[in-house]
Amino acid sequence: MLIERKEGVSNETIYSPLPDSQATLETVGGKGMSLAKMIGAGFPVPDGFHITTEAYRQFVAANGLQTKILAALKDVEVSLPATLETASASISRLFADAIIPNEITSTIRDAYLTLDTSHLALPVAVRSSATAEDLPKPPLRDSKKPSSTFAETMLYSMQSKKCWASLWTARAIAYRIKNNIDQNTVALAVVVQEMVNAEASGILFTANPINGQRDEMVINAAWGLGEAIVGGLVSPDTIVADKATGKVKKYDVAEKTVITVLAESGTREEKLEGAQRSLQVMNEAQVVELVTSRAKSNPSTAVRKISNGVARTENFISCNRVPSQPYHPNPSNGNCLVPS
Fold first, then answer.
1. Residues 141 and 277 both lie in one domain
2. Residue 239 near residue 210 (C-beta atoms within 8 A)
3. Count: domains in the chain
4. What is the pLDDT of residues 162-195, one digit of tens each?
5. Residue 151 above 60 pLDDT?
6. 229 shares a domain with 183
7. 212: which residues sit within 8 A by CB, 6+ positions away?
8. What is the pLDDT of residues 243-288, one digit of tens each?
9. Is the pLDDT of residue 309 over 70?
10. Range of the structural domain that residue 278 is part of
11. Residue 313 phi/psi, 5° resolution?
12. What CATH number has the domain bearing residue 29?
């Protein structure tokens, strides 16, 4: 499907397909650029598209927000957290009340329809993608806002605005002040990707983050979508495996009380009941398949398992972290591979 050109706005500057070989840090942010590079390298990445930093700038300009943002920041003191929170809340309200120009909204809608020709029924994840110089180190927790349906234009408009507003959290504002980054120059891109409705999700560390052993991989795994693990809402199973063979060296089964599932508009957490709470999320064959496929540079492959005749998909994020770095299981981190 071709995207028609809209009057008054250049589609090429506010939208680009996810595999765009011309994607840059300045136009699609760190997450977007990494995804484009991974696709170009042949990695299995869910399809999607970029809403570029130019779209953010046009949204801000159309609503006259920049002077209001700067005014909200005028009395901020890094040493006074309350002033940061007040400024952030004020800017968040500005974004919530602002209107995305019709030209941008319709371009985003048309881009979505390139993914789903069944007329706005495909679940997608809408995630922020900041330029590296705007990110605190270690990075902020991913501000992804998954949308389970695009049935209404307002839904993804709202999600895009939430991503854009995440540029102005109290922590992000403080980081830029401390690092002398001009608040008047920052912008944010958005990544929209097909949602992987995984039955189980996890994080794969390609070096043991506890003892530093590089011949071991560690997997954190839990039932449902990955948001519960990333958000620290569930205690996952922890699996230590030999990197060369995938053989399980240690498997600690956690009591998994929460599961993240798709909802009518987004995701929701549900209480996990019954025996599933204490079941192993992965068996040894699945661990071997995941670890050895990763070791052979076929990263983040979706592992399919058959249980009672039903194919089930696990979704893993692979993180290259060692103990000298802070433990931060976050898919927005440049050291992590995105879910496949």
1. no
2. no
3. 2
4. 889 999 999 999 999 999 999 998 999 999 988 8
5. no
6. no
7. 322, 323, 324
8. 999 999 999 999 999 999 988 777 889 999 899 999 999 999 999 9
9. no
10. 200-319
11. -115, 135
12. 3.30.1490.20
Structure confidence at residue 227 as a pLDDT band (50, 70, 90): confident
Tokens 């994607």 correspond to what residue?
23
Residues 6 or more apart in contact with residue 122 via CB below 8 angstroms: 112, 115, 116, 149, 150, 194, 195
Last residue of a domain, one of 156, 175, 194: 194
H-type alpha helices, the chain: 11-14, 25-40, 53-62, 66-73, 81-97, 102-115, 153-165, 170-178, 227-230, 284-295
Q: Which residues of 205-215 are buried (b: 16+ CB within 10 A; e: fewer)?
A: bbbbbeeebee
Domain CATH code at residue 294:
3.30.470.20
Question: Which tokens sit at 314?
Answer: 């696990």
How far is Cα 22 from Cα 41, in angstroms, rounded to an integer?
A: 14
Looking at residue 165, its amino acid is: A
User: Rounded to two decimals, what is the model's pTM?
Assistant: 0.72
- pLDDT of 20 over the 90 cut: yes
What is the CB neighbour count within 10 angstroms for residue 74? 7
